[in-house]
Amino acid sequence: MTERTLVLIKPDGVERGLTGEILRRIEAKGYTFAELRKQQASAEQLAAHYAEHEGKPFYQPLVDFMLSGPVVAAVVTGNEVIKGFRSLAGATDPTGAAPGTIRGDLGRDWGEKVQKNLVHGSDSVESAEREISIWFG
Ligand code: DAT
Ligand code: MG
């Protein structure tokens, strides 16, 4: 079934010059960019985007990191793209992310590696719609 999902290239991916490589992988898989925009996130957007994690120990460092530089936000469409993009992205912790995935191939194994894991992808139809409205109105 055709779906849409919200993808973010996080500030580490933009800063490291990996935007093209990450977008290439998404496009090569056969997905389409319905919207694509580089932007500086606002604190309000991030509070809404990461509401499910509020109160967790990594929440504030995560928000601060996401404010540290521009992100690339995209609405990506395709058959089962929500699950498919998360499969392309790989596991949250780059150390355990499988080779062949964005996080497994490109994620760094040191420092704030779990937080700086290059990409975000929505995890359900409901979160995709919620997140698309946060980033694209
Ligand atoms: P995902 O991005 O794989 O959907 P998530 O929704 O559980 O993962 O968490 C959102 C982001 O928060 C994740 O990409 C990085 C950060 N994060 C999650 N768990 C963390 C942890 N234990 N320590 C540091 N950062 C963490
Ligand atoms: Mg998540």
UniProtKB/TrEMBL annotation:
Gene3D superfamilies tied to this protein: Nucleoside diphosphate kinase-like domain
InterPro entries listed in its UniProt record: NDK-like_dom, NDK-like_dom_sf, Nucleoside_diP_kinase, Nucleoside_diP_kinase_AS
Recorded GO CC terms: cytoplasm
Gene Ontology biological-process annotations: CTP biosynthetic process; GTP biosynthetic process; UTP biosynthetic process
GO molecular function: ATP binding; metal ion binding; nucleoside diphosphate kinase activity
Binding site for ATP: 10, 58, 86, 92, 103, 117
PROSITE patterns in UniProt: NDPK, NDPK_LIKE
UniProt entry tagged with the keyword Transmembrane helix: no
EC number: 2.7.4.6
Main location: cytoplasm
SMART domains hit by this protein: NDK
Record bears the keyword Kinase: yes
Residue span(s) of domain Nucleoside diphosphate kinase-like: 2-137
A Pfam family of this chain: NDK
Reactions the enzyme catalyzes: a 2'-deoxyribonucleoside 5'-diphosphate + ATP = a 2'-deoxyribonucleoside 5'-triphosphate + ADP; a ribonucleoside 5'-diphosphate + ATP = a ribonucleoside 5'-triphosphate + ADP
UniProt keyword annotations, A-Z: ATP-binding, Cytoplasm, Kinase, Magnesium, Metal-binding, Nucleotide metabolism, Nucleotide-binding, Phosphoprotein, Transferase
Protein's cellular compartments: Cytoplasm
Enzyme class label: transferase
List of catalytic residues: 120
Family: Belongs to the NDK family.
Function (record text): Major role in the synthesis of nucleoside triphosphates other than ATP. The ATP gamma phosphate is transferred to the NDP beta phosphate via a ping-pong mechanism, using a phosphorylated active-site intermediate.
Self-association and partners: Homotetramer.
Stated name of the protein: Nucleoside diphosphate kinase
